[in-house]
Amino acid sequence: MTEPVTAMKPDREWIIRCPRLGGEVPFSYCEREAGDLPCRQVVRCWEAGFPVERYLRETLAPEAWERFCGQVPKDRMTTILDVVGAARQRKK
Fold first, then answer.
1. Which residues of the chain have pLDDT under 50?
2. Of the residues 25, 40, 68, 85, which has the fewest C-beta atoms closer than 10 A?
3. 83 lies in some domain
């Protein structure tokens, strides 16, 4: 008899190339890229590495999961400005 499979806990320092930013980022960035929510593309980017959707369902509060699923993509310019603003905040 097999045990139920639970979501593998990722190493937050795993690195992947971000298609939105064009460089390498750790999973920890993707997990909180949208403030308290993961990047809207986190499932697409990380699904080959581990069961990321299952992990997020198990770790996010139900209301956070609903907000994550309901995210509307931003236009390209808004995304660029947000990334620049976040970089400036991290630099301070």
1. 1-7
2. 85
3. yes
